[in-house]
Amino acid sequence: MLALAGLVAGCAWGGHNGTRLLPADRGAAVMYVALGDSTVEGVGASSPERNYVSRVYARLRSVYPDARLANLGVGGATSAHVLVRQLDRAIALGPHLVTLSIGPNDITGRVSVETYEKNLETILGRLTYGTTAVVVANLIPDLGVTPRFNGSRERATVAARTVRFNDALARRARAHGVQLVDLYAASQREVPLRPELIGSDGYHPSDAGYARWAELLWEGVEARIVSQ
């Protein structure tokens, strides 16, 4: 039992069913790597400290003071970009925690859902077998409720594709034990009632939107932290 406790404290494995957990040791130098697109980079935030990744990192440091962050998100990234340009870098960092937010550029760029799912399978498979990281991914928010698409001729198409892409993401997440955060339902409920969640470009989150995103993502991260 002592050996098992040491294993859980020392790495990101744990749980009764092989569920990956973050270390019990609050002194661990937890490495957090963020993968994805412009929302990961923080487009729309008034400063880098106000994007959702930085906010999640601040919460992480309240638990693990020595935690470190590598934000690899790039505006315009698709699932293929994450696969080719971000994934190797992430694995080389030896992460304990990875967050993944990807899909809107695949949707608007007319990438097929089959290609998206294939890319996700490779990304999540390599994170599963190439690291011990807890992986937290979010469903794609409903793009149709943003001012960019609300009322446009593309709205129905974009909304339908978002559902299909989220179905694919959910399948791959379940297959690889990924902690899934439902930003889709939250965006449908909240954005029409709180337009301040969307930034001035009518598409990306505002500071308030990123704060809400971080709250939801943190719930997913917190579910994988070993309690003391």
Indicate the topology:
Layout: H1 2-10, E1 31-36, H2 38-41, H3 52-63, E2 68-71, H4 79-92, E3 97-101, H5 104-108, H6 113-130, E4 134-138, H7 155-175, E5 179-181, H8 183-190, H9 207-222
Parallel strand pairs: 1-2, 1-3, 3-4, 4-5
Helix pairs in contact: 3-9, 4-6, 6-7
Q: Which architecture name does CATH use?
A: 3-Layer(aba) Sandwich
Strand order of the largest sheet: 2-1-3-4-5
Average pLDDT reading: 92
Largest sheet data:
5 strands, parallel
Distance between the termini: 16 Å
Number of strands: 5
**CATH class bucket:** Alpha Beta
Helix content: 40-55%
Multimerization state: single chain
Shape summary: globular
Count of separate DSSP helical elements:
9
* CATH-derived topology: Rossmann fold
Q: What string gives the helices and strands in order? A: HEHHEHEHHEHEHH
**Would you identify the regions where 5 or more consecutive residues have pLDDT less than 50?**
1-16
Structural class: alpha/beta
The number of domains: 1
Strand content: 5-15%
State Rg.
Answer: 17 Å
Structure description:
This protein is an alpha/beta fold and 228 residues long. It has nine helices and five strands. It has helices spanning 2-10, 38-41, 52-63, 79-92, 104-108, 113-130, 155-175, 183-190, 207-222; strands spanning 31-36, 68-71, 97-101, 134-138, 179-181. A five-stranded parallel β-sheet has the order 2-1-3-4-5, with helices on both faces. Strand 4, helix 7 and strand 5 (179-181) form a beta-alpha-beta unit. The radius of gyration is 17 Å and the shape is globular. Residues 1-16 have low confidence and may be disordered.
